[in-house]
């Protein structure tokens, strides 16, 4: 008999405060869909009314199973809840749940808000009542709860109790500045459960002491049944509690799974690594290879001593099985594990090669070789597909690019304005035919892409509907020199999408590789013959 | 009356197992010196005898105050300690302390080592005695201690007790697979202190559950007096306990500093941010901007609501003062921020504009305007500085780029190989002089950068030492079209570094803006006149 712990994701609200992170409307919809699919209970989409993008995001509920939550402030002092524009915006939002944030520290009420302690409580009560009356599930985020409790426990509890008595489904205790430590959190939460039952309590931790995950677990041990966090621990300053780590721990550590259950099932858990990486891809953030459970190095052993023990019996060094979260073991001295992984990965993208097929070994070698150069096939399925198919000699030589030239020129035009021109010329050989095309673009890659697809002779009709949909660049140190990795997502007239990769110190060269792969992939899928 | 907690750094031994990390001999000496200066008690330098570099490193003690520790295995079964080459290598090393690692889990002794439980204990005792007889301080790392204790507490304790009774100064309890959780660690350590006194115990945690720091703190609460970890949480898989975070917590959280003291004093603490960044620089690793206490974003607030509260009174949102560890507060310019933010941020980068100065309003407008186009000034202080100074008319027109042309060409060379060439031509006007330069590069941006800095007439000597150190690209939707944002980090001969930004749909154009800003910034800082 396990207790149900609810997961509340605030990647799109608190996570949006991260330095250098911006979510477009499309990004928000994609993330909400991913969270929904993962089995998250609540998706906090943002702060409708505070900015136009969030208001637009709340025009329509983007999740099927997960509850969609809107964040906002309790009513301003001196106004009624009915006359508060912030609350009005929240009620207009197509949200199942409304999350109010209120100060629960007397210091903050007096110094930051400059209102009386009583007015703050009234604000909490009337806001919660208003939202409840409008049929929403209501939550109160008690901001600065732990500092507030340490300074004035009665007032902090009064805030929590007021929300609970006003009908809030959840009262969330927030360690807003991330300065609390696990045993403090455990002890304080245990105290709070004497006023508000654990089944109504949530925890919202930050990582300023490196203890957000531990604080969240301590709170659950003391009775809370909702955990707030973000994917990959996104968030301002040091980030929010990492929900990915918490899902891994709660689902896989005996200590927890014997007593708690989540909305995430085993299959969804198997997608955890993918979700974590997809978010980093979307935000063009370098993934944390050391992330617990899902990092690409989370199960990588380098040391000879460890490696042989791991191969003898993985339980000797792995606290959980990597496959449970869709991750893989990396043992850098042997390719035993490598082959099984590869067969599975190839199967996934539609290439069948048996374990004993000699070509499998060559594919593995080629992959390792390319990865050492900086290629990453994770998220570049079409290039991975072509790599394998080329080794299987199943990719015809449709065309050869004999030469290309790309130039970007900035100069004064006839009107005396400084303008930038981008131009590309490409010479291809299709069968016996030599074709040369030129194109302009809003940038060098756009010009090259257009020129490359302008005239491919007899294949032209097959690539008419092809277009570049997304372009990502990562520059990193591949040894002593900087290496550029380009990922290109393409789409065609059927709506199909695929991603290809290119690597070079030269960004144009890297882009070129990815473009050629993209066209080749389309021709292979279209069944074109050479 | 505080209890002394000893810090044991294993960056150069366990940290060296990190994916993609290699320390040269010079690197090891530099890190050891940094740790010594920081006030660390023990520096574990490596595994002499296991590889030539470590053996060479132990030819001479590299620290003045910190104890220098050598790591190795207990004697092999069937040999005497006197005849064990591993122990011989350890005794040859110029180390103050010797750290033996031994299995303390019966499962590992039987399955991984394939020896009897008794033989393992003999190995521990005889190794510790041998090193003690040779005048060294001796430690035993009890590998897999927590899993071992959960499965067979008597045996795990027997290992610990054997080392203690043989004269070990420290018995270190290792959570080798990182699978233990804080309350388990706390409870088990408390039990162990009934066999080995806390003053003789150490903790060695890993971050596989995101709880290494919390586990270390829990162990200290239960009585251990040595913490093992690495700078920046380096280490294989998910890393070791982050000593930087632990130093911050133990020195700055009241909960700890009232009861514990370290070898690190307040001045040394003020160097913590620098040490953390210096290590990342050395290893060419992207720093974790979100790292607790020392990350460049650890005290960065974006939201308008938070920002105005922070400025009113930093204690409202900061759990500790950033300056204590040599870090700074950052109130990020965002389109939610207002004048108060701006005045503070400008002050931080050395620009003084009063709140009522009309130019401040123009700067704010320009920032918001540029941010709407896709510029982000967080992390691009030099461009932000120039933006303000331009409005204040304090940036002379040093040079004007009349024209540039960048081309990338891929074609067959004389040897029939397909190669890629990148070339740039830049025409600048410096005063009355028109200068035209050409350069090649490994990519278009490299070529443009080189050409731009090849001949700037009378300013040439001022920019001789200038070089491009890092280049980051982000492409995102700025409205309906893709926009490219480029961040360039430059350095000069004095070691100063600064970052500039450029935005355009054209990546070359965006890079160009950032390059021009970088040169201009250098000239302004050098006090050049037009």
From TrEMBL, chains A, B:
GO annotation, biological process: isoleucine biosynthetic process; L-leucine biosynthetic process
What broad class of enzyme is this?
A: transferase
Query: Pathway of this protein?
Result: Amino-acid biosynthesis; L-isoleucine biosynthesis; 2-oxobutanoate from pyruvate: step 1/3
Q: What is this protein called?
A: Citramalate synthase
Q: Which NCBIfam families does the protein's record reference?
A: citramal_synth
Instruction: Kindly give the SUPFAM superfamilies that the UniProt entry links to this protein.
Output: 2-isopropylmalate synthase LeuA, allosteric (dimerisation) domain (SSF110921), Aldolase (SSF51569)
Organism domain of life: Bacteria
